[in-house]
Structures are given as C-alpha cells and as structure tokens.
Design brief:
263 residues; alpha+beta; Deoxyribonuclease I, Chain A; six-stranded mixed beta sheet; 6 helices
Length: 263
C-alpha cells in the first residue's frame, strides 16, 4: 500500500501536474494540503476519472485539506475535535482496505510567522501553539483506539537543524522555534513514528523549496512535510522517500510529495 502527502498549493492551479503524477505513481491514498478550494470548485470529477474517491474540508482561496483514496472513505472528523477553528486545516477519515480499516488524517499546521507589515504581532504564533496542543491531545486519543493510524501533511515544523539548508538563518522563524519543535516531538513521544526518519536517520529529506532565489536547483530546501505512523503501521513500513519530480515541472507547487509504502 502506497500513501503520499502533498501540499499542492492550489489544486485547480496544479491539477494537470497532479493528474500526471497520480497516473504515473498510482498511490493508494493521498493526503493533500492547501487545496485552496471550496466544495463547489473542487475537481471531484477529474479525480474520479483517475480512480480516486475524494473527501475535502475546503476553504475558498486559502488553506483546505483533502483525502484521496482508491478505496471507500468515511469522514471521521472535520477540523480538530474540541478546537474551534475558522480555518480548514484538519481532515480525518477511515479508509476501508479490503477487510482492514485504516484511519488517516491530512493536516496543514499553521505557519505561525507574523505578517510582514507587523513583525511584532505574535497572534499567529500563539494560534500555532494552541493548534499544536489540540493536535497533541487528539493524537493521544487516536493511539488509545489501538487502530492503524496515519497522520500526514505539511506540519510547518523544521524539527532538527539537519532538516533545513541553513539553520542559522531560520533560528528565529516560527517553523523552527523551540516551542514548536517540542510540541511536534511530544506527538512523536506518544508513540508515533516519523516514517522518513525511521528509515533514513541521516539523509536529507527536503520536501519544500521556495520559489525565489533558484532554491530548488540549488537544493536550498527544508523538510516540513511528514508522515507519522502508529506502532501497528510502523512495523509494516518498507519504504519512505521524497519524489522530487513534481517540483521540477512547469508551474509546480513549492512542495513535493512524500511517499510511504507499507507491507
């Protein structure tokens, strides 16, 4: 079984690239972030012709998450439980794979950096911390279900210095501040396994390159997209890798897919 997470940075703007990638790579489940589309504008039919059922939590022009699957999908949660949020950042679903049920979530963690015109505004960072605390509480509840669980998405966290091309440049960035790192580590310490780092403890695994400054060609990237596996699924992990090909296409997303394969 092949599971991918991909921040598409507007699904309608990237649909041609996404369709080509889905056709060539044929993942079983895809967790999308930043679809930037409400329900009415989402390309359900195009995805259906490619063999995918889709469930979304949409938002016009901003945010938005989706789960695509070759199997039957049932929505479990729209947004994090017990956390009121005007932004569409979390969609949890149950995938029916033959006789097995796998719970998956597509998550788009807040960025947390202040507006460019008001660097002293900490409201976005405070929101990020509260959102991550709610994510921790829900992740704890998910593990108590003793079900196969996959948490994937754009986490907007650079968890170690080796996960960014220049850690000194980003030391005060909201993606790398210690409060943020600690909150993601706390989720891992509950018992979730970082799929990429489990198999590649020292490899570069960048999933994001800025559009400016020739960043992709110079490999000035960062690892901010994750697939976290519950212990049941971590035992079945056979491969995890970054697919750079979509990032090299014309009009790409600034992210590229992260893929895990399970036995």
């Amino acid at each position: 079984m092949k599971i991918a997470t991909f921040n598409v940075n507007s699904i309608n703007a990237r649909m041609e690239n996404l369709a080509g990638w889905l056709d060539s790579e044929a993942p079983d489940v895809v967790l999308l972030q930043e679809i930037k589309s409400d329900y009415a504008a989402f390309p359900f039919f195009d995805l259906q012709t490619l063999g995918y059922n889709a469930k979304i939590l949409g938002q016009k022009s901003y945010n938005g998450v989706a789960v695509l699957s070759r199997y039957k999908i049932e929505i479990a949660h729209e947004n994090l439980p017990n956390f009121k949020d005007e932004n569409s950042r979390y969609l949890e679903a149950v995938i029916h794979v033959k006789d097995e049920k796998i719970r998956v979530a597509s998550a788009y963690f807040p960025n947390g950096n202040p507006p460019y015109n008001n660097p002293d505004d900490n409201s976005k960072f405070d929101y990020k911390l509260k959102w991550m605390e709610a994510m921790y509480a829900h992740a704890k509840d998910l593990l108590s279900l003793n079900e196969p669980v996959i948490l994937g998405g754009d986490f907007n966290v650079i968890i170690t210095n080796s996960d960014v091309y220049d850690p000194e440049m980003f030391k005060n960035n909201a993606l790398m501040r210690e409060e943020v790192r600690q909150r993601l580590k706390a989720i891992e310490y509950l018992g979730f396994y970082d799929a990429f780092r489990t198999l590649h403890p020292k490899d570069v695994g960048y999933t994001f390159w800025d559009y400016s400054g020739n960043a992709f060609n110079a490999d000035l990237g960062m690892r901010i997209d994750y697939i976290l596996l519950s212990p049941i699924l971590a035992d079945r992990l056979s491969k995890c890798y970054v697919d750079k090909n979509p990032r090299g296409k014309v009009k790409p997303s600034d992210h590229t897919p992260l893929i895990a394969e399970l036995k």
